[in-house]
Amino acid sequence: MNPQVCEALRSGAFRGDHGDTLMVGSTQLLVGLGPAKDYSIDRLRAAAAKIGRVLVKVSARSVTLCESSAWLIGGPSVLEGVAAGCAFAEGLALGTWRIDDFDGTATRRSPRLSSLALWAHDRAMRSGLARGLVVAEGINTARQIAATPPNIANPTWIASESRKIARAGKMTVKVIDYSHAKALGMGGLVAVGRGSAIKPCLVAISWSPKKLSARARKEHVVLVGKTITYDTGGYSLKVNNGMKGMKYDKCGGAAVMGIMQTIAALRLPVRVTAVLAVAENMVSHDSYRPDDIIIMHNGVSVEVTNTDAEGRLVLGDALSWACDSLAPTRIVDLATLTGGVGVALGHFCAGYFCGDVGLRSALESAANRSGERIWPLPLWAEHKDFMRSQHADILNSNPLRSAHPIQGAAFLAFFVRENIPWAHIDIAAVAASDSPHEITGTGPTGFGVRLCVEFIAQMA
Length: 460
Hints:
alpha/beta, Leucine Aminopeptidase, subunit E, domain 1
């Protein structure tokens, strides 16, 4: 062992606790991973984020992972090496990312490093590093889209960015504009976006690889993302600074865009279509109101009780259209839907609703492998009945606060055919962080990209 390293260990300057780092000389960095019994892929990912921040401070241009085969969770194997390399690269790239598009002449921040060369002694880990960087790039794309302010990121901009992602990944894209949405009877999407000068749209991005996995030959996964580019609450106006941060109401759609970029870059042999329900919820003479009754894409009538429960309206149309037009075999939607899910589960995981055993098992397996936690919440017939309206088929929000995080899922259940496996993932509490997250810091997290990429990869 290097004498300087030995001295650092003897002196107690480095204890090896989780997150500890110590520069030894100018070329070696000691990294603490904590007790062996607590070591995990998630801990490695978090440690890599810390390492990345140190490397930025010292303006490193290259890094070698020494004795990397000893970092593996379950002992030396190709699978463990790839998993460890992937997690390390993800943490490194996520921990050093920041949005700098809007740095002006008064900025005090130094420019990001242009590049960092990575190397590991273990061959499998090197393979994982390459994959992890691709996944991290997709996550950071989701974070970039989420962080882009509403004076730029409006529905037209989302459609344009979708086209760029589709073009780069050799995917196809279809945009249903406002007039077409009206003709198709998308009353929810039309009502929510009507008050904005920038009208709503529905965007579909399709990945159809030439070679499909034998296991996934008959599969068509549809991912649906709530993409409210800004949410004022409409006439149920958000008050007491409640509007601050509402650019993050598009995090579901941003995650879906990042997922599509990643699966195309990884060439995953599974057919996948993303559907983005894109609107800006604004106040104007033409905005929808509480007491309005609107007719959704599948003919269900909805009494509006709260214009700030707009996400479920645009998602309802998107889910119904996907069922009718895409012949999905599985549907997963991602949405910053309810504040109640954060009250129920905190910022530690996303809440999800799924009545299909197979889909539920696949998502939980993907969550365990990806480190993006989800927790099941119930969705019973009584919850759907709770959304019934005196004047229309259903309410968009029951004025009673009972089962608040479940109300959104219960509403959405009216727009998915019962024979199609469907999961609703409410990411409202995990899509962005107000306090420093150990991997992504403050701001958007890109939650859902790792989870869904792993879910689709497992199908292959």
